[in-house]
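User: Can you predict the 3D structure of Amine oxidase? Sequence below.
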Amino acid sequence: MFDNPVFDESDNNSNSSRKKHVKREKQTTSKCFTFCSHLFVLLVFVVGLVGGILIGIYAYHGSKDTTSCQNEYSQGTGAKTGTDNLTPTTAPQRNIVQCPNRNPKDDTTYESTVFAPLTVNEMKMVSDILWQKNYITTVDRTPRSLKESFILYMYLLPPRKEDAIRYLYHNGMKPGRYARVHIQRGAEQVPDIMEYKVGPLGSSSNATVIPLTRPGEIHFNSRPYDGVEVTALNHLLECDMKALESLIRESFDDATFPDDLFIFFFNGPPGLKEGERETRFVLGFKGFRTIQDADIINLLPLSGTVHNPGTNSSEWYTHSYYYLNQGPYLTVSDLVAEYKGSTIRKVKLPAGYRNTLRKKPFSERDHSLPLREYADRPGARAYMPQGPRFSISGTKIKWMDWSFHISGGQLKGPALFDIRFKGNRIAYELAVNDIALEYATDSSAQNGIIYMDATYGIMGGDATILRDIDCPSYAAVLNTSYWHSFSQKAFDMKSICVFEEDGQEALWRHFSTNFAGGMRNRHLVVRVPAVIGNYDYIFDFKFYIDGKLYTNAKASGYIQASFWDEHNPHASGDKTRDAFGYRVSDYQTGPIHDHMFGFKVDMDVIDSNNSFEVVHWKAGDILDALRTQSNITQVPPYFIYNQTRYVEYETIRTEAGFRMNYDNQKLFVVVKENMRNKWGVKRGYQIVPLSTAAQSLPEVHPAMKALSFTKYHVTITKRKEEEQYLSSIYDINRMDNPKGYLDLMLDNESIVNEDVVNWVTVGFLHVPTSEDLPMTVRVESGFMLKPFNFFDTTATFDMPQYSESQGNNNVEYEPSFDSCVESNIEY
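Assistant: Sure. Here are the predicted structure tokens for Amine oxidase:
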């Protein structure tokens, strides 16, 4: 409460004069108020008139700049049916400023750089050279027969490492650009596959064609499938499908071939022996009315085999037909005759089933379901408030003291070269090499399927960036090219994106009573999608501010399903699952399989002379630990337990392969023997596999030589130019005589203080479940390259940090910025 005011008595003597003064003041104020009121009304009218005109113009013409965020919303329960509108409350007027921007890419051409993928122009030049020198025999360069010679694949042949290092670090001559070309030589008297080195590609006048393989070294029947062969296979089976018309109609909801059905041939490998070519096939529904990768979730229980070696398709024939796993029937006539009898078990899909398939595989929103609450509002997103912090020159990328070249090829996939951090070379090459999948199912057509995806091409023609799905809209996109063997033409595809990502978490942090500090985790991402048939892969290379490099492989897309047979005699009473997987849909089971990703990791810790150490993580008695470093006989009294953990160090002297074993854990480290950090420790980088899968097939399995890279998580070999890859694209088609597998490289060579290569394999097991239909939500695995005594201290303190301390002025924050509207410019 306020006290009552206290007045001086002398105020009473002047009341009369004060009243007169107040009266005059009131009269003056009244006149002023009247004038000001009129003036205010006039101003309000003028402002309202002008504002109304401007609002009318805005409402009439609209505005394209609607990117400002509305942060306050009226109260509501959110979207439930997809028809609710969210109305923002009135927000205060403010100026909308677009974020500053710059194009991170300069005008440097791919052709002028050392490691860049081949361009369309270079591929056309290679084709012209080979045409002019009569390596290609096709009329108008379009293959129509297996008896012709044509180009299967072409991609960059990287320069020899010593030449590249001399150019990059020692002012040596710039290596020329060369293509590696695979030619299917069907026109030869003894057909085969040959590989050639073609270039240099600056000018066709001085280009040479140098064989990389010997004639006959790669058997013609070991080749990958191509469009010419698949066309011939389809043509061959037309007569058989006609003979099966009645069986197909009765069994599969009145379907007809080829209107409703397609034939799937990629159930490899095509035989066990090098000279064989036996192609298993299976029928499937065309859910989209045309053959789509999605339709291999709709495969049917009708299969067979084509004997198709050599170039003469008139000598090919079909055999070993199966219907509901009943068979084999030597010919299609035998199957038809048995079907018309009364002994064979039959399937009859319900009428109208085919019509349900057209929508089933399509990955669109189910409009019969209500939207989740607030699902019709845009989700959170990141942007660059002051433009990109990375730069791209041709295919060389720089960011926060990192630099490297991005490359890749049609078969083996994306690759990075000359990776440096703070001026130090960390790795010369980090590259995807192959992906192995092994399927198991109770199916005549699909049991024992083995894929080595490099055989089909990891960076093929479908590897196109989906903006705002694969990568944020602000990412810079780079092109790669691929060679289409069926049309004999080169095509560009937007297949690599580069962007800085906000991890929205702490890279490091600490909080105490008198100190708080941390650093927000931001990293550069190089992302490359790859589509191989039904599966979509995404490869990430993530560069961190502290010197870590994380390589990640994700899988999505459609599963390859198998037909669910309700009356399968091999199944138990539980019809929902069997020894090979679960029932996942009306007539589909999900065959179990794995995804094993093989990488080449050519570590160069400072330079090319390195060693490989294994740090064994162990547990045992105190004496066991201490005897690893000295000859001791008694436990010192200060140990409170007799058991402890300890590490034991081992330098690997000769080439070897290692598997992760959680009962016997190890750390793998590449070190520079004669380079030490401030504390006298060898400088190194650790290879950290982040894997959940291991090869479980026994050594006696026919595919294990070709798949030998899947046996190890980390393999160390001495580097050789002739040992470019951990697998051959032909070995899965010649399993009795593989010639390019990883085990061949393990020949006991010394790897101490040598140029060494690590071959890293990571992966995951996939047991498909109902959540994998219609689309597999991504699963992933990867590995990390991590500084291991490489620096004297944490390698982030040359960056702005968040730091506050009590009692002094040690206060620092990240650079500030003004709020702005994200740019919609595409790089």
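Residues 231 and 566 are 34 Å apart (CA to CA). The longest helix spans residues 15-61.
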